[in-house]
């Protein structure tokens, strides 16, 4: 038993590591420059001068720790010294790296790139480097030396660069793997501070998912209550549907020869094949619509989030009538899925010889179905009940969108609209984490409940 | 008996419904079009419906005794009918212009049978064209996902926890090649040189492998390490089944742009897990059967063994789960367009139509008809897979 526990724990740990890597990947592999995106999105204090803007940009860049390499290992050419990668200015970094690649001599490239960037009139040069590539740009410059007002020294450097390119060209082909002690992944995962750049993070292991790009707040604080609402609804649906499915399945088997038990299957499966979003829309159309039946409110509950968990929960419970349609929309497919499963399993179970014995002994049919057989099918039903959990979390996106509930889905959709990647990756991580933990718990629980699994495991190990 | 069973199992109403949907969606431009399918005018034959850009001109027909064949439903998707704008229901008064230019009640053949939307576009035509998009996306995504799932499931199920062994030197070589290729991909941007590098390094790699395969190198090549491919598969599949599919697709669609291709790719990448697990489980039970041993002993290996010997035996189960995946893909694609993050808004889809109706509750037909149409499709898929599963047992 102990070894099984340890093994399952290690497996969960590996999966969690994969999840962390996955979320990190999502939060970093973006089109464009996040620092620029944040500055253009929140341009509350407009800085007029170009110098001020550059300073702002550098500050933002360093605050986010973007000047660090991504991971513990990085794969670079031997041409790029470590210091090149840590530069805060993206344009300068691009120019420097491409010059260095071109020539194979970092020192010369650095002085040249510095010169190009320092001279404000040469802004078009950087653009041309980006546009046509380094070798074309250098050739053009050397060919039309009268067109640009560049001093002699610069031209000498440039021709030196070209000759270096012809001699040391091969160096760029050689990869080198580097170890980075300070990197973005470590800071994101375990937290830490960067002296001199203002970067402070507690890391996701302590629940710090960073700051939202567009709304500025702490992601954890922003997502806390929405996620609680979604989790509460999902767990509530599971807790309600599970016993309900057992009872429904049992009754369907008990009355399986009656006509209404015979037509239940196509009816249930048709309801099951209705997509969640259409079910929700149709319920709103028929039951929360002044033109048809105005029985239930179509608005969403207004939740109290200022005074902590207790008042939040009270405000949720006191507005329970707002939750009827959402809960039904979230839960109907789970209920049908589980009850059909119970029905099929019970039907097979009743064919087994022990049921015949029980009948011969004189147990009532009701007791056979609801007690003896139910015990035997409990484990697969629990396992598939827990496998529904990610579907419930995913369904909450649609529920939140339809009923404008302040749940995780609303946060997700808002973040998707604004391309707010810290929030997106945070939600992805948390929903994956909760599901993985529930999978592991289910495994342990079923191995405890079912003596067969326990025993077979015991035999295998010892 | 078995053959009878095999012939009968496809004889079910649900398959007919699915084939009907596929036909409808393939023939949508012929079934519902505002342009004539065929026009014979002054002895010249033309097919105006192939060119959707042009507008239908009533007067053209009346100039001369020309001959035209029209589609059964006279509206194209997305083209607005200016006389029946802003949500005209199926039972409402619908207007049309007669030859004298007066507004009259629409003739029966030209009615909007399922109503119109805000811009006066015909709902029936929108549904037909939307089914086309939905089916196209889900079919391709399901096929891609199945290929991926079969590959990964085969790999994990066939090799199991310990039996994939690879020579340590070969592993090292593969690792070096991998490092070099990633370096080329990330750092050396010039494409011509990049391709040269890929080619040369691959050539060197194959050459080294050839040397290793010689008998003299046996001592080096026999130092083997095993790869726990089964455990890797299980962990990755746990990761993909733990993250809700909607959230996964929503998150990654922000990285790629929302286009048909990216939706297909993301649906495929998020749909393989269940099928791959089934394939793995089937393979584990089938691996120890005698016919597999016989095949191995007669010298069949690798892809040939899997595709010719094993795949036909697990095919019925795979087909059932492919149908489930298909139904799931259709539902998720519709849900994404409903949320507004699916295919670009210019493309009509079933989910997009329902979300259009959701904002205007007086137009109940915008909600009811596309939803029913979608549900019947998904329902018949469930029924077909149920049928296949039952005849299998």
CATH superfamily of the largest domain in chain B: MetI-like
Strand content bin of chain B: 5-15%
Spell out the CATH superfamily of the domain at 219-461 in chain A: MetI-like
The percent of residues in helical segments of chain B reads 55-70%
Question: Using only CA atoms, what is the Rg of chain B?
Answer: 28 Å
Category from helices, strands and their pairing of chain B: mainly alpha
The topology string of helices and strands of chain B comes to: HHHEEHEEEHEHHHEHHHHHHH
Instruction: Characterize the main sheet of chain A.
Output: 2 strands, antiparallel
Multimerization status: heterodimer
Q: Output mean pLDDT of chain A.
A: 83
Largest interface, counted with CB-CB under 8 A? A-B, 60 and 54 residues
* Cross-sheet strand order for the largest sheet of chain B: 2-1-3
Q: Architecture of the domain at 219-461 in chain A, according to CATH?
A: Orthogonal Bundle
Question: Your description of this structure?
Answer:
The complex is a heterodimer of chains A (462) and B (393). Chain A is mostly helical and 462 residues long. Chain A has 22 helices and 4 strands. Chain A has helices at residues 2-28, 34-41, 50-63, 82-85, 90-103, 106-118, 123-132, 134-143, 152-168, 184-190, 219-254, 259-262, 264-272, 276-287, 308-318, 324-349, 353-361, 365-387, 389-403, 408-418, 421-449, 451-461, and strands spanning 73-77, 175-179, 192-194, 199-201. Chain A has a two-stranded antiparallel ribbon. A two-stranded antiparallel ribbon of chain A has the order 3-4. The model of chain A is unreliable at 457-462 (pLDDT under 50). Chain B is mostly helical and 393 residues long. Chain B folds into 2 domains: 1-32 and 125-162 and 229-393, MetI-like (MetI-like fold, Orthogonal Bundle), CATH 1.10.3720; 164-227. Chain B has a 3-stranded antiparallel sheet, with no helix packed on it. A two-stranded antiparallel ribbon of chain B has the order 4-5. A two-stranded antiparallel ribbon of chain B has the order 6-7. The model of chain B has no long low-confidence stretch (mean pLDDT 83). Chains A and B meet through helix 1, strand 1, helix 13, helix 14 and helix 19 of A and helix 6, helix 9, helix 10, helix 13 and helix 14 of B.
């Amino acid at each position: 038993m102990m070894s099984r526990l340890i093994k399952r724990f290690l497996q969960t740990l590996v999966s969690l590591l994969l999840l962390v890597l996955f979320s990190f990947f999502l939060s970093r592999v973006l089109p464009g420059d996040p620092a620029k995106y944040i500055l253009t999105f929140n341009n509350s204090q407009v800085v007029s001068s170009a110098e001020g803007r550059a300073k702002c940009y550098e500050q933002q860049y360093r605050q986010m720790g973007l000047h660090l390499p991504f991971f513990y290992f990085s794969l670079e050419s031997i041409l790029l010294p470590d210091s090149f990668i840590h530069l805060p200015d993206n344009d300068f970094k691009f120019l420097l790296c491409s010059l260095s690649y071109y020539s194979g001599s970092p020192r010369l490239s650095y002085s040249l790139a510095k010169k190009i960037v320092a001279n404000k009139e040469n802004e078009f040069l950087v653009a041309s480097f980006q546009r046509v590539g380094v070798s074309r740009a250098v050739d053009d410059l050397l060919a039309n030396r009268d067109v640009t007002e560049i001093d002699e020294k610069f031209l000498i450097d440039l021709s030196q660069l070209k000759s270096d390119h012809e001699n040391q060209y091969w160096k760029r082909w050689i990869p080198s793997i580097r170890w980075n002690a300070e990197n973005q992944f470590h800071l994101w995962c375990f937290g830490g501070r960067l002296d001199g750049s203002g970067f402070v993070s507690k890391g996701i292991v302590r629940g710090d998912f960073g700051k939202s790009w567009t709304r500025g707040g702490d992601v954890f604080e922003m997502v806390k209550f929405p996620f609680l609402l979604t989790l509460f609804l999902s767990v509530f649906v599971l807790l309600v549907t599970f016993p309900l499915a057992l009872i429904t399945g049992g009754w369907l088997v008990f009355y399986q020869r009656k006509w209404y038990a015979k037509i239940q299957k196509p009816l249930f499966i048709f309801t099951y094949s209705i997509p969640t979003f259409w079910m929700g829309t149709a319920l709103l159309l028929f039951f929360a619509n002044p033109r048809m039946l105005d029985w239930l409110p179509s608005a969403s509950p207004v939740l109290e989030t200022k005074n902590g968990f207790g008042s939040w929960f009270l405000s949720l419970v006191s507005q329970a009538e707002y939750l009827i349609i959402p809960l039904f929309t979230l839960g109907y497919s789970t209920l049908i899925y589980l009850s059909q499963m119970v029905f099929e399993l019970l039907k097979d179970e009743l064919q087994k010889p022990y049921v015949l014995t029980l009948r011969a002994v004189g147990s009532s049919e009701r007791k056979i179905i609801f007690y003896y057989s139910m015990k035997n099918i409990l484990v697969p039903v629990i396992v598939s009940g827990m496998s529904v959990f990610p579907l419930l979390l995913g369904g909450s996106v649609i529920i939140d969108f339809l009923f404008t509930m302040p749940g995780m889905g609303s946060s997700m959709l808002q973040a998707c609209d604004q391309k707010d990647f810290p929030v997106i990756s945070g939600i992805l991580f948390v929903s994956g984490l909760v599901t993985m933990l529930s999978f592991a718990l289910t495994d342990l629980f079923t191995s405890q409940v079912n003596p067969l699994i326990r025993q077979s495991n015991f035999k295998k190990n010892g | 008996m078995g053959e009878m069973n095999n012939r009968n199992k496809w004889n079910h109403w649900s398959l007919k419904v699915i084939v009907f949907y596929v036909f409808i969606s393939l023939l949508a431009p012929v079934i519902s079009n505002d342009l004539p399918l065929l026009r014979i005018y002054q002895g010249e034959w033309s097919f105006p419906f192939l060119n959707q850009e042009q507008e239908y001109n009533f007067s053209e027909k009346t100039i001369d005794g020309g001959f035209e064949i029209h589609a059964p439903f006279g509206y194209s998707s997305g083209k607005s009918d200016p006389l029946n704008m802003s949500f005209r229901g199926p039972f409402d008064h619908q207007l049309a212009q007669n030859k004298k230019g007066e507004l009259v009640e629409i003739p029966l053949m030209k009615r909007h049978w399922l109503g119109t939307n805000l811009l006066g576009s015909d709902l029936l035509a929108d549904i037909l064209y939307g089914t086309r998009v939905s089916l196209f996306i889900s079919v391709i995504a399901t096929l891609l996902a199945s290929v991926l799932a079969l590959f990964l499931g085969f790999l994990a199920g066939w090799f199991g926890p310990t039996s994939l062994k690879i020579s340590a030197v070969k592993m090292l070589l593969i690792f070096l090649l991998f490092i070099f290729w990633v370096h080329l991909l990330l750092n050396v941007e010039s494409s011509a040189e990049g391709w040269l590098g890929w080619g040369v390094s691959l050539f060197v790699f194959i050459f080294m492998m050839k040397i290793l395969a010689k008998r003299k190198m046996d001592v080096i090549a026999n130092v083997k390490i095993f790869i726990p491919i089964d455990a890797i598969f299980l962990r990755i599949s746990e990761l993909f089944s733990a993250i809700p599919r909607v959230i996964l697709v929503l998150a990654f669609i922000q990285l790629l742009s929302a286009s048909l291709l990216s939706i297909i790719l993301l649906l495929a990448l998020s749909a393989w897990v269940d099928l791959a697990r089934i394939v793995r489980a089937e393979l584990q039970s089938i691996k120890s059967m005698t016919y597999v041993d016989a095949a191995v002993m007669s010298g069949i290996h690798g892809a040939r063994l899997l595709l010719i010997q094993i795949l036909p035996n697990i095919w019925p189960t795979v087909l059932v789960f492919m149908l489930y995946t298909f139904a799931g893909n259709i539902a998720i694609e519709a849900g994404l367009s409903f949320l507004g993050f699916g295919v670009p808004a210019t493309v009509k889809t079933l989910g997009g139509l329902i979300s259009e109706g959701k904002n205007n509750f007086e137009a109940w037909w915008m909600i009811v008809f596309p939803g029913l149409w979608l549900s019947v499709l998904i329902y018949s898929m469930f029924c077909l897979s149920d049928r296949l599963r039952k005849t299998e047992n």
